[in-house]
Structure formats: C-alpha cells, structure tokens
C-alpha cells in the first residue's frame, strides 16, 4: 500500500476535526463530484480528505493526483473490499471525527457545519444526513429503522431523528468510538457492515441519529450494483443479494438481545428457505435458492462458533435495555411491504 502524505484542502490548522474517508474502485466518473462537494463546504471545520484506491483499473489515481493533490491517497496493490478500505483509512486518519463518504455521493454545501453543530450537542453518537436521489432529488431516507429480521426500512419521518442505522455512504463517527468498536468487520466483506456497526454501537449505549437541515445526494447502487427500484421494479445482483442475506443473518445472531434471538433466528431461517424456494421457482433459477438463501442459512451454521464468541463478548459490554434497543425496530416485515409495492424482485448475475 502506498501513502501520499498531504494536508487538508479546506483549512490548515494543527488540529484536524474531521477526516473524510472515501473508498474508491474504478470511480473516475464519480470522484469529481464527490471531491468538489467537499471543497465547496461552507463554514467547514479543519479537515483532511483520504481516498483509498482499491486497485482501480481506470484513471482514478491519475485524476486525484492531477486535480486533487491535497488528498491523502492510499493506493492498494490488491482489491481488498469496502471494509478493509475503510479500516485502513481510519487507521491513517488524524481527525477527532471520521466521515465515511461514498465516491458516488456528494455533500450539500452546509453538510459538515450541520454535522459539527450536532456533535457539540452530543459527541458520542453515530450521525448521518438526509439522503437524496442523485437524479430525481427526491428524499430517499433520513437514516433507517430495522424490521426484526434486520432488513433496513427508510425513515421518512421529518420529526424522527433517532434511527437504527445509517448507511456507509455518509456515516459520521467519533474516531475514538470507531476504534472502540473495532471498525468494520472484515469477515463481512461488504454489505450490512454499516448495519452491524450501528447495532453494536447502540448495544454499547450510543445513539444513531440523522441530522436535519442539510443532506447529501447519492447515486444509489452505482458503486456496487442493485439497491434501488428501477422502472417500478426492484433489481439486485446475485453477489449483492448473497452478501446481504448472509450478513444480515450474522447481525441478527450477534446483535439481537436474549431471549429474542433464538426464536427470531429460527423463524428467520424458515422464512429464508421459503422465500428462496418460491423465488427460485418463480424465476426458474435454482442458483437463487442455493447461492443466496441456502448459503445464508448454512453460513450461520458453519460460522456458529465464531459468531457465538463475538456475540458473547458483545453482550458482556451491553449498556442499553432491550426495550431501548428495539425502539427503532418496526413490526411490519420490510420484504412484505417491498413485495406489495414492487412485486417479485429481479436478480441479475
């Protein structure tokens, strides 16, 4: 890994308040908008910008070096994935706070100042901003709630600021808390690592909140594929769905307080099997069942010793009540509401 030492592009002081960390892979067409939005921040604190390039095959690195020389560039020789990339950036960060920002996202001009205002009221929380669709500018979410099977549910309530999770496309966290929680779990590879981090933070007594009054635009799914309705249909990919179902199952096992966990896990497994069988028959593709749904169930079984050990360690440090933990969960299963709204999802290669 190659590191180019640089200074902050906004203000130059001894103390860096926020390190903005951008994981990049073949984002040459995305980075300009992302980095320009950081340079355009109004009343911003002192910051540094770190980009981890994950062995891109396009001209991302050349773009950064030529147009944004003040960016601290971590250039990986191998493609290591989203979790490792962010862990590396935070390890190299000097800021009191870290803002994880997707390369396919762009901040509103007052985003950093609004986040800092919220920090002054409560410095130990995970924060995000309202997310808006890149093309339509419509509100996507104000953070997310969860159903009891750990499926994210967009929060659209303007009066609600406490949420279950925020997505890693725009996630503000004290660097000290990131270190305390041990960052993103590399065994998840990608998808749901943000859900997991927010869940363990809440179990440890911290809050997860959305900051009103500003926001960010996001090209949903541009960096991984899938993740948004297209032409009133829900579309995803085999890899995204495989990682999503597996990692949400891991999070349910590790993070759900006793005694609810075992009953929910059993029901979750049965529903996954039923959903996989129906969807495979509907799409006439047995790989959907085997590679996505059966894989999610068997992965929990295969990894049960490690998952149980992680769970036991977490529950020893639990600092919130079960009632408080579940206060940001919704009773209606998210998949049922999505089925009603969009029908049977399309799953590409």
UniProtKB/TrEMBL annotation:
Keywords: Membrane, Transferase, Transmembrane, Transmembrane helix. This is Glycosyltransferase, GT2 family. The chain crosses the membrane at residues 260-282. It comes from Dyella marensis. It comes from the Bacteria. One of its GO terms (molecular function) is transferase activity. Residues 19-174 form the Glycosyltransferase 2-like domain. Signal peptide: none annotated. InterPro entries: Glyco_trans_2-like, Nucleotide-diphossugar_trans.
